[in-house]
Each structure stands twice: as C-alpha cells, then as structure tokens.
Backbone:
C-alpha cells in the first residue's frame, strides 16, 4: 500500500512484521518514553497515553507526516502486566495467567504532524490459558522468549500451546490490532484508496 511517510515508533519486530504483512511501507524510529502507569490510571487510558506519547516522541526525532505508536499490556485480575523484570517475575505472571481468562489491551495512536492531531484507540482481546504445569512454565522461561513480551508470553511463538482460545483480534495479542490500524491509517489519509 502506498503511504505518505509513515513512521513506526516501535522497535518491536512483531509490529514491523504485522505492518509488512499488510503491505504497508514504513520506517522504524523507536521512541523511548517512561512507561510507568500514573497512580490510579485506568488500563485503557494507560495504553492510549503511552501510544500517543511514543508517536509524538518519534515525531520529534524524525521527518515524516504520520507516526504510529502502540503499547500492549496484559490485564489479569486488575493487575497491569507489562514486560517481566526477570525470570522470577515471568514465572509469577505465567502462574497468575494459568487457567484463567485475561485481557490483552493494545493502545495505538497515529499522530498526523500536518494536522497536529492524533487518532487514538484501544482494542481489547480476551485470552484463555489452559492450566499450566510448573515444568511448562520453566521450560518456556528458559527459552528467553518471555522477557520482551507483555504478560511474559508470545501467542505467535512458544506460548501458542498455552492458549485454549481467544475472543477478539489475534493480531492485537501479537502487539498491533492490524485491522483497526489499517482502517485508521486509511481514514486519516496515510494510505491510498
């Protein structure tokens, strides 16, 4: 798809792969912002704020017109799960997710430098994990896969066998709700017809 200078404000290879799979041309300019939640901040507000913050931060670093930022969290029993700090944190997260449904929430923002405004959305997907055995958790942690993933797992990788079902967008769980992002890019004029 043709574009008018789209910049992805993320170093995530998964987000890049998803955009590439849709035929979208873009450049990557990672934006580093503080990702700590504000006290009392609601999960949807949190991911939307971070997504827009990343998009606007990338606009300070690079040329272009449209800047796409995104942030994904896992929400389980009211806890916002970002990326685990270490193996013990990954084990704690996976134990908490074991056998219970949880939500993956991805906020995305497309900042339009020309119009000086942003489209900001959040998409929720419900994920159901099977009951995990301790050795499954430890084996998965040993792969190193959990450490750069919200909730300590990647549905598209080594954790696929842990997921019984999902309700909602699969690509949202991967890290970017592609259907909604492509629609938003089209609506704001970043893509051709």
Residues:
């Amino acid at each position: 798809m043709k574009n008018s200078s789209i910049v992805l404000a993320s170093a995530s290879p998964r987000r890049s792969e998803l955009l590439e799979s849709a035929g979208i041309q873009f450049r990557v300019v990672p934006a580093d912002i503080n990702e700590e939640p504000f006290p009392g901040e609601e999960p949807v507000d949190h991911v939307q704020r971070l997504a827009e913050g990343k998009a606007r931060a990338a606009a300070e670093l690079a040329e272009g017109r449209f800047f796409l930022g995104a942030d994904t969290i896992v929400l389980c029993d009211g806890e916002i799960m970002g990326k685990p700090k270490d193996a013990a944190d990954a084990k704690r997260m996976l134990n908490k997710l074991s056998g219970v449904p949880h939500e993956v929430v991805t906020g995305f923002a497309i900042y339009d430098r020309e119009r000086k405004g942003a489209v900001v959305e959040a998409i929720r997907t419900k994920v159901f994990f099977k009951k995990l055995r301790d050795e499954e958790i430890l084996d998965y942690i040993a792969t190193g896969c959990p450490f750069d993933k919200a909730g300590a797992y990647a549905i598209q990788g080594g954790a696929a066998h842990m997921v019984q079902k999902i309700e909602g967008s699969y690509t949202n769980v991967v890290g970017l709700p592609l259907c909604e992002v492509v629609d938003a890019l089209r609506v704001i004029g970043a893509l051709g017809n």
The chain has a mean pLDDT of 93. The radius of gyration is 17 Å.
